[in-house]
Design goal:
The complex is a heterodimer of chains A (about 130) and B (about 475). By secondary structure, chain A is mostly helical. Chain A has 2 domains: about 60 residues; about 60 residues, no CATH class. Chain A is flat and about 60 Å long. Chain B is mainly α. Chain B has one domain. Chain B has 21 helices and 2 strands. In chain B, a hairpin with a 6-residue loop joins strand 1 and strand 2. In chain B, helix 11 packs parallel to helix 13. In chain B, about 60% of the residues are buried. The chains are: A mainly alpha (about 130), B mainly alpha (about 475). At the A-B interface, helix 1, helix 2, helix 4, helix 5 and helix 6 of A face helix 8, helix 9, helix 17 and helix 18 of B.
């Protein structure tokens, strides 16, 4: 079911490119090559979509652990946009190992501090790159 | 001329900075290889951001030595705890772990070190011999030949995907389509950019590659994550049997040659090289029954092949600008980011870089012997680092690395999006390397196709012999999976 959903998403992706290159093809021929790519992709995906899928329990569901980390990562990036590098990274380095059942809070705390400030200063003073 | 250039490469390597980068590259490479879940491509991609201020030659000494060492590093945890650090060391684990269970871990580890270094040296010798000569020929290539070459590079990936050929085609096309999001390089017309300024130059290679190889890999590994620590193994002090190598010269030479030639083929890479070499050595061995039950010959076959494939894979990258493996695709992106034009012109415009790379790969293998034989027990300490910590630090490095490409958080979001795509691709066995190849070769394919059309029309593709040969080979590559399925 999940594989079908992923393939369906890819189908939508190819249809999107096909549609936009198709409507622009009359104005300019720079869309010709993406138009050809998207047609071939669409056909390949349709063949894959209607092919019999060998189901395994591992592939049929999305891991909750991965989804949790993806959500935390999404929030981290969002906060990175608003609050800069230090605080969000410090929080991210604390929360992620804990959410992965690491209960060594003291080590996590120290490591988060050292890593966040270490990386920030390394980039700022050694590589001359200022992080956000 | 050739020897003068090679000497220039050695001179650069033997400067304090050159040696520093070489040692750092080898140490980091072994670490990257030894940590299960970190691949050479992931490691090199994460090293690129720290190289921006550096001279490209020294940056590439760091990358290629890490690349070479990571291929060896994977064998340490594969042998000691049956946890292959890299995909190519899966084959090493078959016999390596059996030997560990028999109390012969150190013997197996030493065999892996020497075989890796031997394979790596054979690979680099062939790299030096072939790449310079191929580059000389490639300098005569015109747009039609480059188009055919890029098309061939993409089609071989499909041929090597075997039963997954259709999935490989999907991957390549995804990469090509994503690559078409940019301002048209001929007319300047907007193409799928929808007014977003960050997309005018196209989607940056590096964030996309870090997302696919590093972030996607972590998301995938989290599915089978458990917080239990890996059982740690302390090595006993059995005698190392270096004398074994004198009895197995033929195995080492054969495996190294197989590894180098498989490495040259785009999309094949170290894993395919290891499997082919292992199969071939087993087929010809007098002690076939020992394979899978703890054969030193099995470790030699796998390690020599996967190490020599590094040199092989660098041949098309340096000579033609076509990546031979996923890590080479990352290196290709790094060349572009350093403002260099990959391909045969490198041999004319950046001689010191090319020969610096040759020297670095050669000496990285010598350092691998040193660090490998002395530090096997030490490298195993990486298994004590909890995966939850490793994952967290790598995720932050992914975003920092992506951000530093253009000092833009947009690239960090690109990395995130490609990370999720990489997770799904891995989950459904669509090789991420196919997407990267499409992404990397897309521009070369399209630009040269259109240039050739402008210069000589469609007939240009059929009247030039080299172009025609590549197109016929591409056709074969695309047909092979159809026939192999039927048989």
């Amino acid at each position: 079911m999940i594989e079908k959903s992923f393939l369906f998403f890819l189908l939508l992706f190819s249809v999107f490119f096909l549609f936009f290159s198709g409507i622009n093809l009359e104005k300019t021929d720079v869309f010709l090559i993406p138009f050809i790519y998207s047609i071939v992709l669409l056909i390949s995906l349709l063949v894959l979509f209607f092919k019999k899928i060998e189901k395994t329990s591992e592939e049929s569901k999305l891991s909750k652990k991965t989804l949790t980390i993806i959500s935390i990562t999404f929030l981290y990036l969002l906060f990175l946009n608003f609050y800069g590098f230090l605080m969000p990274t410090l929080l991210f380095c604390c929360i992620t190992p804990i959410s992965l059942n690491n209960k060594n809070y003291f080590t996590i705390g120290i490591l988060s501090l050292v890593w966040t400030f270490g990386i920030f200063n390394l980039f700022k003073y050694v590589f001359q790159i200022t992080l956000p | 001329m050739f020897f003068t250039n090679l000497l220039t490469g050695f001179e650069l390597l033997f400067t304090p900075l050159g040696m520093g980068m070489l040692i750092l590259g080898v140490v980091l490479g072994i670490f990257i290889g030894a940590v299960p879940g970190m691949s050479p491509s992931m490691g090199v991609a994460l090293l690129i951001p720290i190289s921006f201020g550096m001279d490209p030659t020294f940056a590439f000494i760091l990358f290629v030595s890490a690349y070479q060492a990571a291929n060896y590093g994977g064998s340490i945890t594969a042998i000691a705890v049956n946890a292959p650090g890299t995909p190519s060391s899966v084959v090493t684990a078959i016999d390596g772990y059996e030997l560990t269970k028999q109390g012969r871990a150190r013997e197996a580890l030493n065999t892996a070190v020497i075989s890796s270094a031997f394979g790596g040296i054979v690979g680099v010798i062939l790299l030096i011999v072939f790449s310079a000569s191929i580059a000389k020929i490639a300098l005569k290539f015109g747009p039609a030949e480059y188009f055919a070459l890029a098309f061939f590079g993409l089609s071989t990936v499909v041929a090597f995907a075997g039963s997954n050929a259709l999935k490989a085609i999907v991957g390549v096309l995804l990469g090509l389509l994503v690559n078409s999001i940019r301002l048209d390089s001929f007319t300047g017309d907007e193409r799928f950019t929808f007014g977003i300024i960050e997309l005018y130059d196209g989607i940056s290679f590096l964030p996309a590659m870090i997302g696919l190889f590093a972030l996607g890999e972590i998301f995938y590994q989290l599915e089978s994550y458990n917080s239990e620590k890996t059982k740690f193994l302390s090595l006993n002090k059995t005698k190392s049997l270096i004398s074994n190598f004198f009895n197995s010269k033929l195995t080492l030479v054969k495996s190294s040659l197989i590894g180098t030639f498989v490495g040259v083929i785009p999309g094949a890479g170290a894993t395919v090289a290891s499997f082919i070499s292992y199969g071939e050595v087993k087929r010809c061995s007098k002690q076939k029954d020992k394979f899978g039950k703890g054969s030193l010959e099995g470790i030699m076959a796998s390690e020599a092949a996967n190490s020599s494939s590094v040199g092989g894979a660098l041949v098309p990258l340096l000579a033609l600008g076509i990546p031979g493996s996923a890590t080479d695709a990352v290196l290709l992106g790094a060349l572009t980011l350093h403002g260099l034009v990959p391909g045969p012109e490198l041999f004319q415009t950046n001689v010191s870089l090319v020969y610096g790379i040759f020297a670095a790969v050669l000496f990285a293998n010598i350092l691998i012997i040193f660090f490998g034989l002395l530090g096997n027990s030490l490298w195993l300490q990486v298994l004590k680092i909890p995966k939850s910590i490793i994952y967290t630090l790598i995720i932050t490095l992914c975003f920092i690395g992506s951000y530093t490409v253009q000092n833009s958080l947009f690239d960090a979001w690109v990395c995130f999006a490609f990370g999720i795509l990489g997770w799904f691709l891995k989950k459904y066995k669509i090789p991420s390397a196919t997407v990267v190849l499409g992404l990397v070769l897309g521009q070369m394919l399209e630009t040269n196709f259109r240039r050739s059309l402008i210069i000589s029309g469609y007939s240009g593709f059929l009247t030039k012999p080299i172009c025609l040969i590549f197109l016929i080979l591409s056709l074969f590559s695309l047909i092979i999976p159809v026939f192999s399925k039927k048989t």
